[in-house]
Amino acid sequence: MKKLMVGMALTATLATAVTPGFGSIGGNQEKAYAATVTYKVTASKLNVRSGAGTTYGIIGSVVKGQTLSVVSKSGSWYKINYNGRTGYVSSDYVQASGTTPPAESTTYTVTASTLNVRSGAGTSYASIGSVTKGQKLSVVSKSGSWYKINYNGRTGYVSSDYVQASATASPKLVVDSFKTLGNAQQVILVTADNYDTKSAKIQTFEKVDGKWKQVLTANGVLGQKGFALSKKEGDMESPTGKYTIGTAFGRYENPGTKLPYRKITANDVWVDDSKSSLYNTWQQKPANGRWTSAENMDIPAYDYGFVINYNESRTPGNGSAIFFHVGTNYTAGCTATSKEQVVSILKWLNPEKNPVIIQSPVSELDKY
Question: Is 96 buried (19+), middle (13-18) or exposed (0-12) by CB count in 10 A?
Fold first, then answer.
């Protein structure tokens, strides 16, 4: 079962200045960030849209090295300041590194019956309007005892003595509803819209202090024919299910993973001959009659990766050489993403946390 080699995505660094607080007068709420974060675009060109979705019109694009001001995140979209306008970019093509966005958001509510909104941070500044008890505020920042807010499209200031901030729970993560994780504290979730698509979404989650936290989101690819209802050798489909993580591998030195690591040599192969007693195992050439078909491991797609422990019983014909590896087009049954993401995941994985990988169409996640 020969894996198809694919190209690497271009990357770009976006250093963004972001501001604390979220929400709006009237109750709209978006998660906003309270620290400077670096973002990397994983596509050569990323469209900026007028709203948070692909149905909205394109108002421009960002390219490698361009700096953006990220205001907040709404679902899978980043709200940004773009040439003096508000724009949105898909978070699927933007990788965040540095400070992690907060797990909880904060709601700002007026506690006074009437509260003046002033043009500056102090009572000596003129009143430009007022807000009333219970009203939600879009807080940009805090200066001393004053909150800087967005007020009817203008910048205003209100006394923090009459505004109550309260934490609200972050949205529930998909892994929070899983019942089959056992003692797993790290999860790689690979999902697709349906069985027939080769495009996948890859998310990683880690349990910290008893709570699941999302670590990474990336684009990925599956077998050329998508997910398999029942995986068979040579069907060009990726298996669905929950699997443990096997040996990490690569054509270079260990990139820093805690998993057992094996460096690939020119003689390394994975046996895909269903009639061989060595079916679905890593071996070295020459075959000497031990198999009639085996996959060469010394290829660019396997610059880095790890074994997905599929068909551990080595049932003949049920599929072999199922890996998580480098690639951005499609595979013959593995799961793949960019080299940068593969290395990032390898460094993150910790065998002491009993990591698992779950692969499923979105509609069948309730099985887990």
Answer: buried
Give CA–CA dist 72/30, Å, rounded. Answer: 6
Residue 16 has what pLDDT? 36
pTM: 0.60
Q: Which residues pair with 142 in a beta bridge?
A: 147
CA distance 176 to 131: 38
* Angle 85-91-93 from CA coordinates, rounded to 5°: 105
The Cβ of residue 184 has, within 10 Å, a number of other Cβ atoms equal to 21
CB 89 within 8 A of CB 80: yes
In angstroms, the CA 57 to CA 49 distance is 5
Tokens of 366: 């309730």
34: buried, middle or exposed (CB in 10 Å: 19+, 13-18, 0-12)?
A: middle
| Neighbouring residues of 10: CB distance < 8 A, sequence distance ≥ 6 | 41, 42, 43, 44, 64
Q: Quick check: 135 and 202 in contact, CB under 8 A?
A: no
The rounded distance, in Å, linking the Cα atoms of 253 and 246 is 18
Specify whether the CB–CB gap between 218 and 42 falls below 8 A. yes
Token pair 């929950």 is at which residue? 242
Closest CA to 321 of 338, 330, 304, 308: 308
Report yes or no: 192 and 227 within 8 Å, Cβ to Cβ. Answer: yes
Mean pLDDT by 10 residues, the chain (368 residues): 38 35 35 50 84 86 74 78 82 64 66 94 93 90 88 90 77 92 97 96 94 93 96 98 98 97 98 98 98 98 98 98 96 96 96 98 95
